[in-house]
Specification:
This protein is an all-alpha fold. It is built from two helices and no strands.
């Protein structure tokens, strides 16, 4: 019973997390990596 409750809570937390938008810093870093420019160049 406790395992089901934990699993349910983990699913809820994960679903909430994946619906959050990416922070602007991550988007900038991803764009730089896609262009082949490491951070700091």
């Amino acid at each position: 019973m406790a395992q089901r409750h934990i699993a349910s809570n983990l699913r809820t937390m994960y679903n909430d997390l994946v619906q959050e938008p990416l922070p602007e810093q991550f988007l900038d870093l991803i764009a730089r990596l896609d262009q082949g420019h490491p951070e700091g160049e």
